[in-house]
Amino acid sequence: MEKVIFLLIFVLSFVSCHAVEDIDSVLKKMRETNCYMGSAVSDAGETPGQYKLYEIVRDSATTGQLEKLLSDKNGVIRAYAIQALVERDEKADYEKIALDSLSDTEKIEAMFGCIVSNEMVGDIFLEMLKGRISKKTQDEIDRRLLKSKSPLIHTLELLHGEKKSAELYELTRKWALDGNDNAVFALAKYQKKEDYELILSLKDKKEKFLFFKACPYILNDSLKPFFSEYMDSILPSNYYGAEWRSFYKSLAMFKDDFSKRELRKVFSPRTNKNIRKYHLAFIADALCPCDDGFYDDILFEMWEKYDAVNLDIAENLYGRDKNRALSCMVSTLNNADEYFNKTDTLSFSIETLLDEKYDIRKIFIKKLPGLSISVFDEFFKQIRRFADDDVDAALLNRLKTEQNGYVALPIYDYLLSKKNPLVTGHVLKIYEKNKPLYKDWVEQGARKTLEKWGAL
């Protein structure tokens, strides 16, 4: 009996030591790779070896081992350790872990999908622990982040978020007075008169993103000259700025004759024609929430001249001025290749015009031979509503020179499905002429389509 017990203890000890050795060797490999990777990386979305090693640790390590790894010298290991504890739903002192992580500002390389970035370990901890800590602890975390002027991204998120309290205000103001621009911006949400001049100082910075982002909290008529001056400065620009989005949103909030006059400047010859589309995209984004009709004259001009409205705007304008919107939809079809970015407004325009019994057949015939791939698809979706020889002729003309399978194969299928001997004959001639030019998958697809409809 004693021999059996001794043997059992020996075996268990051996297995335990072997498991520890296995985990140690896995951790060594992870440290050598030294990158915090997700379950899918690269364009192919493959599971990297590093993540597979992490899974071994997650599934094999004891709770005690994982907790010990939270203080490992290697930041990647610390990040994976907290991830493993959370994914295993272990009963750990997450609130203490969160508070302790605030000082962990080591940057590690991280890779998720195709995105490679440098992340601070403390940010990874706080992200992992969302929903696992009490409001009281979260408030303490926020207080410590501001008091210590922490470089963690979570500090920036706190400053740019809507959370407010008397204590956070005092900590934010102290940091703002020390010269931190993000803290100055954060004061705007408190809307205190004594901070106005400090917030206003952001407009004198080279980058004015924070000032324009703060404007919704401090907007008043005294700022109009600055807005007008800034508008004049960006119209001839050879490049667009990310701050323009916030600028246009704030400008739209004036919602008066001044804002209309300034917005109309984008239609002037002074605007760089190569950059105008970016201005219009930002303006559309700014005016989209204004569904009371105040800016309709500007939105209609954007639609008529530049096809620069999104689907929400198009639907709202159609609901308020049907006839003018239908006229704009015709322009959208005519200008589809020249101006179009997204196809949702085009799709809405085509379907609405057809439902309203508009004769857009001639537009289809004119546009089909030269449309870009994404735009062609929107036209082609409605092609069966035109049982027309001229439309078939336009498609045949496109097929003569089309080598892209995503366009050519649907045309083959549609034309052959008509079972018109004359049309089928033309299709066969085109196939014989073009098959040496097709990629293998296109040639095979065309041949299968011909066989499917009995043309070969």
Topology:
Elements: H1 2-33, E1 36-41, H2 49-60, H3 63-69, H4 75-87, H5 94-101, E2 107-113, E3 115-120, H6 121-128, H7 135-147, H8 153-160, H9 166-177, H10 181-187, H11 196-200, H12 209-218, H13 224-234, H14 243-252, H15 257-264, H16 276-287, H17 296-306, H18 311-320, H19 322-334, H20 336-339, H21 344-355, H22 361-367, H23 373-380, H24 389-401, H25 405-417, H26 421-434, H27 440-452
Parallel strand pairs: 1-2
Antiparallel strand pairs: 2-3
Helix pairs in contact: 1-2, 2-4, 3-4, 4-6, 7-9, 9-10, 10-12, 12-14, 14-16, 17-19, 18-19, 19-21, 22-24, 24-25, 24-26, 25-27
Describe this structure in words.
- The protein has 456 residues and is mainly α.
- Among the domains are: 21-132, no CATH class; 134-218; 371-456.
- Helices cover 64% and strands 4% of the residues.
- The protein has 27 helices and three strands.
- The chain has helices spanning 2-33, 49-60, 63-69, 75-87, 94-101, 121-128, 135-147, 153-160, 166-177, 181-187, 196-200, 209-218, 224-234, 243-252, 257-264, 276-287, 296-306, 311-320, 322-334, 336-339, 344-355, 361-367, 373-380, 389-401, 405-417, 421-434, 440-452, and strands at residues 36-41, 107-113, 115-120.
- Strand 2 (107-113) and strand 3 form a beta hairpin.
- The model is unreliable at 3-20 (pLDDT under 50).
